């Protein structure tokens, strides 16, 4: 009987399918670990996380899917998508800090899935690496663990742009319908910034390509109707119930925040350059190489491209040859747009990170086809970058606790582990299989880093920066929901206490002193001052939190 040829398609499919399935399963485990592991390892942090979680809890308690409220008052700073997701999470898992972060983790997983299936359809052979690279970016991992609106916007916005490019390449209307649906979800996630940024990106891309027919194709009446059907009902309902919504949300929290430093978030114009480079770690070096190469090719005006997905000799008008250009515009527009803004926060440019990750994916894919071997300096630099990430992850607990890097056995051991790992990566990248190993060894460094942060640093972060341990101590002392008062603590601690204790805090400094016995969370060493503010009432010290410089007192009748 004749043996099938080695290059027979049936033989190749039998050989590659099990490998593809194994790779897909490993990718699922990888994304599941990076996005969902340790969601509740430390309490909610900052001002936004506990406020957003509390708003969702109040909406769930009232079964109100329209008006966000905070401590019973309308809170109209953000649209409703995150709150809807958190309400569903609370209903399924119970109210907790971990459940409040599930929406962001879910949205990050949705983004990873969209990238996988997009690349599998339009860039076959790059889907595993592309998803791996995107999922392992520091910005994606960090905001996947945040109870905030940044990841819902970044995920829906990115899926929308991928869908539009899918339509641009295939001209299949199903992709254009998906573009409008996810653009509507982006509008529900954070407002008009989603359609505004997408319009600028698509216009610039079409203008550079001079493919003006794509404008008429994009302005599809059915798609616009889908966008309005998904987005408009909530905006109409919340405006009808809250006539101040347009002023608060559109005028104050969009236009005024962009044009003025209303909330004291002013940063220099170049602020987002280092932020973006940090957000794309550990792929920053490769991204810089990819952007440099592509810009050089653009300036060379049509010379053969080593970053071109289809290689030289292809029709430059073929939309398949436009992928790197589309990614470059997608990446740069949010960075430049928010750099102009007078109010700057790191999460604003999260929608640019997937574009950077996909540009890295395309660059590496082209290098593999060209048989490129990593230079010694690149292998050393990438190994050192991964080593630094591991060192920071192993040392993060000490940095959080002491606000510096202390000398000692732990620090020296972390440095030794990081150095060994950096050397191993550098040697691996210089091997014949260096390009194939790059994503794997870098992803391994990310897994080690995330695991170290969750296992070693989370308890220290919880004790030093979260209100959760304070609330747990108060609940242990008083099982009843006694009134809560505060004195000389910052608003981050206040919002955290209000979420974990599920009650509003009354401020001594504002003269709001409860008449009933109550708990006071105050700045460390202020027992005498608290007693002076409640003359004739007994003040008893309950416990202290030196890590956060707070004391807890009981005020009787």
* Order of the strands making up the biggest sheet: 4-3-5-7-6
- Number of DSSP helices? 22
Which blocks of ≥5 consecutive residues have pLDDT under 50?
Answer: 1-15, 303-318
Arithmetic mean of pLDDT = 87
Characterization of this structure:
The protein is mainly alpha-helical and 557 residues long. The chain has helices spanning 9-36, 48-62, 81-93, 97-122, 127-135, 138-144, 150-170, 173-190, 193-209, 213-218, 221-241, 245-259, 272-279, 284-299, 323-340, 353-369, 376-402, 409-429, 434-465, 468-477, 491-501, 527-533, and strands at residues 69-70, 73-74, 484-487, 505-507, 518-523, 539-545, 550-555. Helix 21 (491-501) links the parallel strand 3 (484-487) and strand 4 (505-507). The protein is globular, with a radius of gyration of 26 Å.
């Amino acid at each position: 009987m004749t043996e099938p040829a080695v290059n027979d398609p049936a033989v190749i499919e039998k050989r590659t399918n099990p490998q593809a399935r194994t790779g897909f399963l490993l990718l699922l485990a990888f994304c599941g670990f990076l996005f969902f592991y340790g969601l509740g390892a430390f309490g909610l942090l900052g001002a936004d996380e506990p406020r957003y979680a509390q708003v969702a809890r109040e909406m769930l308690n009232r079964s109100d899917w329209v008006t966000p409220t905070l401590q019973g008052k309308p809170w109209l700073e953000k649209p409703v998508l995150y709150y809807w997701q958190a309400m569903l999470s609370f209903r399924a898992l119970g109210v907790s800090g971990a459940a409040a972060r599930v929406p962001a983790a879910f949205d990050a997983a949705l983004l990873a899935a969209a990238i996988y299936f997009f690349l599998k359809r339009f860039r076959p052979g790059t889907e595993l690496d592309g998803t791996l690279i995107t999922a392992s970016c520091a910005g994606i991992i960090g905001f996947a663990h945040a109870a905030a609106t940044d990841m819902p916007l970044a995920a829906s916005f990115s899926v929308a742009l991928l869908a539009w490019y899918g339509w641009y390449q295939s001209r299949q209307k199903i992709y254009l319908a998906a573009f409008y649906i996810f653009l509507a979800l982006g509008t529900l996630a954070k407002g008009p910034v989603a359609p505004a940024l997408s319009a600028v990106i698509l216009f610039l891309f079409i203008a550079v390509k001079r493919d003006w027919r794509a404008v008429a194709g994009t302005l599809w009446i059915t798609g616009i109707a889908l966008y309005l059907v998904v987005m408009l009902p909530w905006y109409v309902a919340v405006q009808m119930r809250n006539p101040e919504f347009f002023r608060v949300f559109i005028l104050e929290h969009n236009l005024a925040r962009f044009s003025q430093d209303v909330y004291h978030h002013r940063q220099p114009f170049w602020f987002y350059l280092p932020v973006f480079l940090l957000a794309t770690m550990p792929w920053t070096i490769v991204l810089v190489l990819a952007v440099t190469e592509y810009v050089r090719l653009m300036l060379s005006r049509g010379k053969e491209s080593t970053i071109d997905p289809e290689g030289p000799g292809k029709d430059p008008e073929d939309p398949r040859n436009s992928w790197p250009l589309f990614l470059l515009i997608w990446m740069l527009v949010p960075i430049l747009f928010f750099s102009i803004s007078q109010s700057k926060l790191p999460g604003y440019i999260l929608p640019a990170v997937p574009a950077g990750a996909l540009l890295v994916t395309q660059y590496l894919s082209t290098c593999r086809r060209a048989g490129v071997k990593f230079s010694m300096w690149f292998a050393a630099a990438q190994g050192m970058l991964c080593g630094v990430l591991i060192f920071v992850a192993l040392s993060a607990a000490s940095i959080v606790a002491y606000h510096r890097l202390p000398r000692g056995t732990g620090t020296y051991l972390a440095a030794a582990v990081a150095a060994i790992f950096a050397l191993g990566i550098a040697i691996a990248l210089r091997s014949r299989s260096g390009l194939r190993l790059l994503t794997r060894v870098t992803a391994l460094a990310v897994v080690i880093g995330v695991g170290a942060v969750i296992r070693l640093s989370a308890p220290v972060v919880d004790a030093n920066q979260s209100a959760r341990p304070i609330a747990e101590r108060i609940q242990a002392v008083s099982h009843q929901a006694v009134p809560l008062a505060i004195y000389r603590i910052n608003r981050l601690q206040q919002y955290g206490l209000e979420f974990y204790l599920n009650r509003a805090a009354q401020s001594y400094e504002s003269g709001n002193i409860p008449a009933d016995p109550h708990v006071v969370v105050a700045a460390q060493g202020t027992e005498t001052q608290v007693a002076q503010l409640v003359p004739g009432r007994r003040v008893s010290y309950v416990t202290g939190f030196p890590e956060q410089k707070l004391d807890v007192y009981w005020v009787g009748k």
